[in-house]
Task: inverse folding
């Protein structure tokens, strides 16, 4: 199954997990305390996040810590930038129309 | 064309909204027409190299704008905006969605609510466009459509993270 960063943020629980580990690396247990859902459900979300390569695991002693791959988040930013550019281009075209109308006025 | 007209594009992750603000160097009646008359909309609504082509437009409350975005290869992406409220030369609201060539809205695809308001500022006009999305789960589809309005929501804290990363670099 192909997974990417947009699939990662499509789910509200995963967005909440991302928000939490953005601040500091956390263990699944610590994460699960923040949610009403079962630990298994949280683990499942973490697994998807790892498959999306948005989150990486790090073993420290007996615990596994999950931390965010910030660089991967840039893909979202890049996508939004493209959307922003659509509006820019659109408005520049409208500017041209306005200046044409003004020039044609006697 | 380079200019110093204000342009703001911001995403509110909590409210699932995009705000697009832009000043235009034209007086309000002209800008209002540019947003509400199909012959003008067709000239600027589609970003290059696409063209907007209106099939039918009826600008009144309960009316609609049915148009296609036509690509350089002649590909067509149809859309319909259904006008909800109109306060002439001040603001209008509409529900925008994907459609087919007959104007039937595709409810499988993301729809967005538009609130567009116009404010005169001496020789300029400020247009504020608040776009509200109710479905964020269809990002993939939206992205594949490329040139179509749609949106994701970036997650909480993304802006701060990216800013922090820039500082580190």
Result:
């Amino acid at each position: 199954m192909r997974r990417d960063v947009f699939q990662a943020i499509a789910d509200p629980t995963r967005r909440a997990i991302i928000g939490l580990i953005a601040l500091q690396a956390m263990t699944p247990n610590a994460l699960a305390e923040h949610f009403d859902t079962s630990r298994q459900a949280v683990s499942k979300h973490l697994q998807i996040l790892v498959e999306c390569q948005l989150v990486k695991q790090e073993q420290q002693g007996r615990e596994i810590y999950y931390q965010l791959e910030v660089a991967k988040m840039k893909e979202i930013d890049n996508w939004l930038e493209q959307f922003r550019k659509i509006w820019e281009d659109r408005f520049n075209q409208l500017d041209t129309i306005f200046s044409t109308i003004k020039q044609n006025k006697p | 064309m380079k200019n110093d007209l204000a342009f703001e594009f911001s995403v509110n992750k909590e409210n699932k909204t995009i705000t697009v603000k832009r000043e235009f160097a034209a007086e309000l009646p002209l800008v209002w027409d540019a947003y509400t008359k199909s012959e003008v909309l067709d000239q600027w609504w589609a970003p290059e190299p696409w063209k907007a082509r209106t099939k039918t437009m009826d600008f009144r409350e309960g009316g609609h704008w049915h148009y296609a975005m036509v690509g350089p290869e002649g590909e067509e992406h149809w859309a319909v905006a259904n006008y909800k409220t109109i306060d002439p030369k001040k603001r209008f609201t509409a529900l925008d969605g994907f459609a087919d060539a007959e104007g039937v809205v595709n409810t499988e695809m993301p729809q967005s609510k538009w609130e567009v308001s116009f404010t005169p500022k001496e020789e300029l006009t400020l247009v504020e466009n608040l776009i509200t999305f109710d479905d964020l789960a269809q990002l993939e589809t939206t992205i594949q459509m490329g040139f179509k309005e749609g949106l994701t929501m970036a997650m909480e804290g993304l802006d701060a993270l990216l800013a922090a990363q820039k500082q580190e670099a």
Remarks:
- Residues 5-104 of chain A form a domain with the Arc Repressor Mutant, subunit A fold (CATH 1.10.10.10).
